[in-house]
Amino acid sequence: MQKIAILYDAGQAILSTFDLDEVLNQILSILRDYFQLQNGAVLLLDKVKSELYVKAHLGRSNVDVGFRMSVGHGLTGAAAQLKRPVYAPDVSRDPRYFNRVPETKSEVAIPLMVREEVVGVLDFQSEQLNYFDSEMIDLLTLFSTQASLALENARLYSLERRRAEQLEAINAVARQTTAVLELDDLLRVVCNLLLDWFHIDHVAVLLVEGDGLRMRAHEGRLTSNLSVGAQLAPGAGLAARALSAGRSILENQVQNVPGYIAGFAETRSEVCVPLIFFGQKLGVLALDSAKPDAFDPDDIQPLESVADICAAAIQNANNFAGMKELAYIDGLTGIHNRRYFETRILEELERASRAQTRTSVIMIDIDDFKRVNDEVGHLLGDEVLRSVSSMMKQHLRKPDIVSRFGGEEFAIVLPDTSIENAWRVAEKLRRQVGEHHFAGVPRPVTISCGIAEAPTHGMTRDEIVAAADSALYAAKQAGRNRTVATGTRKEAPIER
């Protein structure tokens, strides 16, 4: 009777909390203090994989936290399969026993049941033969009923709380992503929101580029093996699998996944959710955890809701970028327009000032362009403008910025470039244009170039453009078809 009273008190203790970790600690404490058990484990059932995994253990258990075994395997798996206690008074004589700790002599496994369904197993070992008598097994079986209820209550409470958080997360993502139109800013917001709301260690956004995926953003605490901008080989990794299948992929033991590509060194669990907008595959959200078995299949639905919101926001950002790009493109020549030049020259001058580097500006004018229009007509004149623009784009570096400044005048910004190197660039362009045969134009087309350098000839946009424009005027005055570079701020332009 005293043991029943103790068991009742123990049951009340574990049923007094809804926190899973506290319930597990209470179960282990009761087993140690009331039942005088030294080695044991609480295993929970993964219904999707039909596996038992160790959630907590006592003393020198024969299994570690996270260890998995199939239902039906070993004494523990047998208890889950048979839905009744399984006892081996001498494990060496029981073919179901698999030996992980040589000191174990006897073992008992008792299923945790809720409404005739197995939710886990209590497993205990002893270094003595026939340690567990029938009375102790009966008491442990009674206790397992209370432990089962406590674990189920904790699971339901955790699930309810998790669902409430996930719903709030979906609303937060919806609110905050709709207000961000710049793609890079949007991806940072998405990563940080997912980190905050889904209790994970790292988030990455990979977007479709060509035949593969490119890492566009990631945030978190894990060690990255892939830098932002890294291109993944087509079809490689969980992300590519999720994108190809058009469905989410969850792996709670990534080390067992053939061909797994570790984007982050410490990852043990990963979920990849495709970003799809009206049938168009835009990319993948990858959520990583350093813990094995970190994700629940029930997490997929809320994550897919988040991915749908993110996909719409990414598409909006792409559309916004496209419209902004169109606003910066000259409709006739296809190169950037003056609005773009005015934005970028300020950015480059500020960057050059911070880095203490030089930036050069070339102002270019097509010589006697009015005469060209008068002689061959505006249609061929427009073709000349397009051809000159194309030559400039072809012979400049990727970081260089070429814009149509107005009419037949162009402006080029050369980051990290001295005036001497800018002069060489201008001369190369001048020769290319002068040697080119423009169809339908009976005489050569030439250009004049004026160059200035920051900070030598000024620190502001107005100072640099005025200096380069003054050099261009000097080239025109000196007979056209030549390059003039400003010498110093106080000197008149000098021809090179």
Written account of the structure:
By secondary structure, the protein is of the alpha+beta class. The chain has three domains: 2-158, Beta-Lactamase (2-Layer Sandwich), CATH 3.30.450; 178-323, 2-Layer Sandwich (Beta-Lactamase); 338-495, Alpha-Beta Plaits (2-Layer Sandwich), CATH 3.30.70. It is 42% helix and 23% strand. It has twelve helices and 18 strands. The strands form three sheets. It has a six-stranded antiparallel β-sheet with strand order 3-2-1-6-5-4, with helices on both faces. A hairpin with a 2-residue loop joins strand 14 and strand 15 (409-414). Helix 1 (2-14) runs parallel beside helix 4 (134-177), helix 2 (20-33) packs antiparallel against helix 4 and helix 4 packs parallel to helix 7 (300-327). It is rod-shaped, with a radius of gyration of 36 Å. The model is unreliable at 488-496 (pLDDT under 50).
Secondary-structure blueprint:
Layout: H1 2-14, H2 20-33, E1 39-46, E2 51-58, E3 68-70, H3 74-82, E4 86-88, E5 106-114, E6 117-126, H4 134-177, H5 183-198, E7 202-209, E8 212-220, E9 231-232, H6 237-245, E10 249-251, E11 269-277, E12 280-289, H7 300-327, H8 338-355, E13 359-366, H9 369-376, H10 378-394, E14 401-406, E15 409-414, H11 419-435, E16 447-454, H12 461-477, E17 483-485, E18 494-495
Parallel strand pairs: 16-17
Antiparallel strand pairs: 1-2, 1-6, 2-3, 4-5, 5-6, 7-8, 7-12, 8-9, 10-11, 11-12, 13-15, 13-16, 14-15, 17-18
Helix pairs in contact: 1-4, 2-4, 4-5, 4-7, 5-7, 9-10
Any key phrases for this structure?
496 residues; alpha+beta; Beta-Lactamase; Alpha-Beta Plaits; 3 domains; rod-shaped; disordered C terminus
